[in-house]
Amino acid sequence: MIDLNDGSAMRFKGLDLNLIVAFEALMSDRSVSRAAERLNLSQPAMSNALARLRSYFGDELLIARNKRMYPTPFAETLLPQVRQALETMEGVIATSRHFDPATTNRTFRIMTSDYIATSILFPIVTRLAATAPGVRIELLLPSPRRIELLESGGIDLLVTLQEYVTPELPSERLFEDEYRLVGRVGHPALSGETTLAAMLAYDHVHVAIGDERLPSFGDAFLDRMGIQRRVAMIAPNFGMLPWLLQDTDWLALIQGRLAAQMARNFPLVAVEPPLPIPPLVEMAQYHVTRSNDPGLRWLIDLIRSSTD
Fold first, then answer.
1. Burial code of 47-84, b = ≥16 C-beta within 10 A, e = fewer?
2. What's the CA gap between 261 and 176, in Å, rounded?
3. DSSP 8-state symbol, 290
4. Which residues, at least 6 apart from 12, have a Cβ–Cβ distance to it below 8 Å?
5. What phi, psi does 15 have (nearest 5°)?
6. What is the pLDDT along the chain (308 residues), one digit of tens a residue?
7. Do strands 171-177 and 280-285 pair parallel, antiparallel, or not at all (unpaired)?
8. Which of 145, 176, 260, 295 has an alpha carbon 20 to 30 Å from 25's alpha carbon atom?
9. Exposed (0-12), middle (13-18) or buried (19+): which is 308, by Cβ within 10 Å?
10. List of residues 6+ apart from 152 with CB closer than 8 A
11. Which positions ≥6 away from 143 have C-beta within 8 Å?
12. With the C-alpha atoms ordered 38, 41, 47, 48, is the resulting torsion angle positive or negative?
């Protein structure tokens, strides 16, 4: 938590440097209450921070209209410089020469799908309680702002399909996964040899991820191949699929690691699809200022090793 009422706060040219963090939060959230929540401050403390920022810069910065806050032109001009300064400081802090997971207190913010969260990250997090008790993982679902959040330090790591990484930022391969066709135990299409005709004879569930409604890799591949399936439902995440499949004759294409986990916990069966689907490739992407961050390197290596 930052202390905006500390009279001994570090100052630069008369400005309490904690206010820079408050300014970025206010500009990102356009809300005093949400910015206060993000920085673990009270709403009065954040209102006071905004008042001090206005006084220092001689500008309103954010103007309230119809219960919303809008930045002034000066604030819009100031924001990129503030974010660049914060990114630089994040890089300085992150590139500490030593990182000991057993003793560190650090929160890693990871943006990824619920497929990665459920099949890869949840098992890791449960083990961290013993080996890295001070490490916390904050998960965020995919957002159209993913690159902006990487650049601003809003997230530390993006785990996403190879098709969705941006070439402007560093990325590296994490693992591959194969697709499986999943349905209830005893499903007619999954008993014995599964044919394409049998697969297409039943309704399917598609998954569209996040605000952008991104299709799963398997669904998108079949669409590109011109293979038309009857779609009974479009779900917003993979976690809903077991409940939709276990009591119906619906089918779904699910990543192999997640399908195996679902089959262990639900009355479901997973088989190889009746046509070849290229493996999906999951990538780690981060900001260039984190390239030498030993903590982030530890986290990426931990994720990769858990998929071997």
1. ebbbebbeeebebebbeeeeeebebeeebeebbeebbe
2. 16
3. G
4. none
5. -100, 125
6. 454 554 445 455 557 778 888 888 898 888 898 888 888 889 999 999 999 989 988 999 999 887 788 989 998 998 888 887 777 666 656 555 578 899 988 889 999 999 999 999 999 998 898 899 999 999 998 888 888 888 878 899 999 999 889 999 999 999 999 999 999 999 999 988 899 999 999 999 999 887 778 788 898 899 899 999 999 999 999 999 999 999 999 999 999 999 999 999 999 999 999 999 999 999 999 998 888 889 999 999 999 999 98
7. antiparallel
8. 295
9. exposed
10. 24, 28, 83, 86, 87
11. 111, 149, 210, 211
12. negative
CA 111 to chain centre: 1
> What does the alpha-carbon distance between residue 137 and residue 123 come to, in Å, rounded to a whole number?
12
User: Whole-angstrom Cα distance, residue 235 to residue 208?
Assistant: 6
CA distances from 244 to 142, 207, 296 (A): 22, 12, 37
Distances (CA, A) of 271 to 156, 189, 240: 36, 10, 19
* Collapsed DSSP state (helix, strand, coil) of residue 49: helix
Q: Where are the beta strands (DSSP E) in 142-224?
A: 157-161, 171-177, 179-184, 204-209, 214-215
Q: How many CA atoms lie within 13 A of 175 on its CB side?
A: 18
- Both tokens assigned to 37: 């929540």
